[in-house]
Design brief:
This is DoxX family membrane protein. It comes from Actinomadura barringtoniae. This protein is an all-alpha fold. It has one domain. It has helices at residues 3-24, 27-31, 41-60, 65-78, 80-89, 95-120. Helix 1 (3-24) runs antiparallel to helix 3, helix 1 (3-24) crosses helix 6 (95-120) and helix 4 (65-78) packs antiparallel against helix 6 (95-120). The longest helix is centred in the last third of the chain and has 26 residues, at 95-120. It is globular. The chain starts with a helix and ends with a helix.
Length: 122
């Protein structure tokens, strides 16, 4: 297996796993849906889970990998406000919890870079 196909497989697994958790354990996701979004938080939780599963399927298929990886990069950017909301909401939590949540924020950058690398086929 080439490095690029391994990166694609791992990205697909990450996205599929994340997508499944939106349905199996939706409450933590509901809590970080920005209030500015219309409708119910659970609807957004499920929609983002569907988007992650769709991205996983597209990335897993070599014929749709490029489009799927670009969609994945866009999704990583789109969910960033939820991570910011979680960091704001958790600012009064104990330091270890707060540190973990704050550490998530810069992780979006390498995730986007990973998806773009998969899209490029490198």
């Amino acid at each position: 297996m080439t490095e690029s196909s391994r990166a694609a497989r791992n990205l697909a697994v990450l996205m599929a796993s994340a997508g499944v958790t939106h349905f199996v354990l939706p409450k933590p996701y509901d809590a970080i849906v920005p209030e500015q979004l219309p409708g119910k938080a659970r609807t957004w939780t499920y929609l983002s889970g569907v988007a992650e599963l769709a991205c996983a399927a597209l990335v897993a298929n070599p014929k749709t990998r490029r489009k799927g990886a670009l969609a994945t990069a866009a999704l990583f950017v789109a969910v960033f406000p939820a991570n910011v909301k979680m960091a704001r909401d958790w600012r009064d939590k104990p330091l270890p919890l707060k540190a973990g949540v704050y550490a998530r924020l810069p992780v979006q950058v390498p995730l986007v870079a990973w998806a773009l690398k998969v899209a490029s086929g490198r």
